[in-house]
Amino acid sequence: VSTQSTGSSGINAEYGGSTECRNLFHVIILGCLTFVLFNNFLMAVLILLLLVVKSESEPIGYQSSKPKGVSILSDFPDAKTFFKQYVVPAKPVIFKGAAKKFPAFSKWTDSYIQSLPQSKDYSVFLEEGKKENRGDGSQRVSFYTFLNIYKSQDVYCVNEIPPFMREDVPVPRSIACPFLVDQLMIDNVMWFSSGGTKSVWHNDGFENINCLFRGEKTFILADRAETLDRAHIDVRDGSYSTVDVDNVDLKKYPGLGEIQFYKADMEAGDCLYVPFLWFHHVSSVGSNLAANIWWRTYRTEMKCEDQDLPDLTIADLKFMGADDSKFPLADRVHLALYADDYMYNHNHSTPDVFLHAVGQVLDETPGYEHVSDEIILWLYSKLDGNRNGILEYEEIDRILFDLPDLLATEHSLLGMARGWLDHSIRYLYQTVYDLIS
Known about the structure:
Blueprint: H1 9-38, H2 41-55, E1 68-69, E2 71-73, H3 79-87, E3 93-95, H4 103-107, H5 110-115, E4 123-128, E5 138-142, H6 143-149, E6 155-159, H7 178-183, E7 185-193, E8 207-222, H8 224-227, E9 262-267, E10 271-274, E11 279-295, H9 329-339, H10 341-346, H11 351-363, H12 373-383, H13 393-397, H14 399-436
Parallel strand pairs: 1-9, 2-3
Antiparallel strand pairs: 3-10, 4-5, 4-6, 6-7, 7-11, 8-9, 8-10, 8-11
Helix pairs in contact: 1-2, 9-11, 9-14, 11-12, 12-14
């Protein structure tokens, strides 16, 4: 899913001006206090210069105020609690020590992985440059080779979890619901480095639980609902920013000076929930190995707490893949509505929003390019079960089930209407012809 910064140059100028004025005010006050306390003009000037340099070279997350922490739980909650308290309101949360129970936490040492015969034949993606630059290339090497070189070279691995290791990663009970694991799983990813990695400032079009098996990670996050027009996601195809995460230039990216950031510090054994479309930057320290699960956003309450599910692992799941262009039509329509700015900020869709979002998806779908606005609004009326004029989460989630049948009905009705129209035109033509004759 691609997002874009909707802030105009006027808005950016306003943000930039207020940020610069506030920072200048703080620097002047600190300089005056220094002069009063030490009665030394040169020392005051030196401190002022240091403060100015520092204020212009801070890493992302510290531009406006100290980042807030996120909620912390001692373990994974049941699915009903997780969705009600964290997924639906889009609140990040750390599950402290939850991954220590996973076999991967104790088993996945370098020597263990290299002892697996498959590691010599299985290839992984090797990313060059620990500070992410999405223009840099990648190459494939054997997993065994990667483990021999990653500690001494400026490289890291981003790859799906190797099939022969997936049984070591259980599905967290918070998402172990039949419908979710059967239909909403997108992908799994393994992140492996010697530490020092730094991601770009970006967001993902999926819900995410990331579990850390060794090392430390820090996530700097921001709520999309609060910061969309200030996040400076300037590369739409990829949903990321070109901002230097180590040295934020507030003149070029002024909106970042007004964002309320959040910070999640992870230790080995912790897991973190990152909500759908939240902006984030990730850095790592020490030998680092993590895995995450992405799944499709779905806000209807998960009624699976009483289900007698077996103990699932990643090996039991079927993933759709992260390329949303290959999703079924109903899934792409569902995703487009959830990603819409108005929907994200107001928790419901309107006829105009629906018409725009669904129209774009249909225009890109062979066989549906010429579906009229009237037909799209007819679909809207059919999905609006309580007839209140808006589509709420449960009604939008019904798209995954109802849209294929509705579209089939629409095509039948449209075909009947065209047949009736053709018959009427032929009848009118014959009547006029008879009168002339």
